[in-house]
């Protein structure tokens, strides 16, 4: 028994020593690789900058470390530049096979590798070279991959990504910060696709499209959003109303005043807030009526909107008998705010 | 891309070394002497000691932001004449207005075009 225990102890010590040695060797090799990478990066930096600046001679690569260093430099500079300089980054990445390799990596077994490739493609590739592959990744089971793909599609200006992005947001597959960031990168270019989606069959998609139009803030889309105020879904109507308030186009005032009579209270509340944002003082009397007679949610919003539009008048009204709790509260708040 | 002899001393300030590389490379090729700073404090120090003709300043910098650097440059008679181009990620109107109110001469958004930066720099430098 004692002998068996002794053998076991010696064996475990040997295994421990072997693992320790392996870890030391691994770390040394890794450090050497990192040092070689840093040296190659510094050495190749002038050549990569010259290429981006318009020189004809591409940076030469003699080994895999050089290749990685060039890819890293191109990605770092690629995300900082636009126009001709950005095109040269994409050209060199394509000519050296980097794009093909990264598109291949999008099918890697490990999620972090797919995510890294998706992220890098946004910095390096052109829309033509990478958009289709990245679009396919929006449905990836790994959230890191979908987030990186959405960001890259936004950076590449791939407007064909708008519909899958909106559907991903509506279904919850994409998180709001990720989807909204990608659409913000696409900017006004995304508006046409979003307008088309206001007529989608699914209520969630129509609602999301309306909300995003408001976030992009394109005044030229006010008419299409006004049309959506007649949508059968109250969720779509409320998001369109908020979007109109956010855009702040005064041409929406009349339609928003009509929305103050919506059968659903939270839509009326959104209309009141939107009228305040648009700065429509003509709706003051209507807002006061709602503040005094409507249910809590819309009355509360209407009182605040009225106070925002005509603070002195709300203070006067609040001093009269039977002004109502919402107008009184709004007047109190005005005094606090000054 | 154009390689000319602008013969200007340019202060480039940004906390992103890659952006500083790109700006420095383009401007040095155009015949400028580039003074590099990685934060607002360093930028002010270089402006006070090296007296550049022009400054390209990032808005979101550590320690002192680009707006404040611009204000301090304008407030000091020794540096008030330095032309300033602000470089920022935001193209929102309030941010642009804030930049010009601080005293900037021009404004560029990131990602930027190195060629456009050179042209704007020439235009700003030629302004009286």
Brief descriptors of the model:
heterodimer; A: 338 residues; mainly alpha; Leucine-rich Repeat Variant; 19 helices; B: 128 residues; alpha/beta; Rossmann fold; 5-stranded parallel beta sheet; 5 strands; globular
Structure, described:
- The complex is a heterodimer of chains A (338) and B (128).
- In chain A, α6 (127-137) packs antiparallel against α7.
- Chain A contains 19 helices and no strands.
- Chain A has helices at residues 2-53, 64-78, 84-95, 98-105, 111-124, 127-137, 143-155, 162-171, 176-186, 191-197, 203-216, 222-228, 234-247, 253-259, 265-278, 284-293, 296-309, 311-319, 325-337.
- Chain A has 338 residues and is mainly alpha-helical.
- With 128 residues, chain B is an alpha/beta fold.
- Chain B has a single domain, classed as Rossmann fold (3-Layer(aba) Sandwich), CATH 3.40.50.2300.
- Chain B has five helices and five strands.
- In chain B, α2 packs parallel to α3 (66-75).
- The radius of gyration of chain B is 13 Å and the shape is globular.
- The relative contact order of chain B is 0.19.
- The model of chain B has no long low-confidence stretch (mean pLDDT 89).
- The interface between A and B is medium-sized, with 17 and 16 residues.
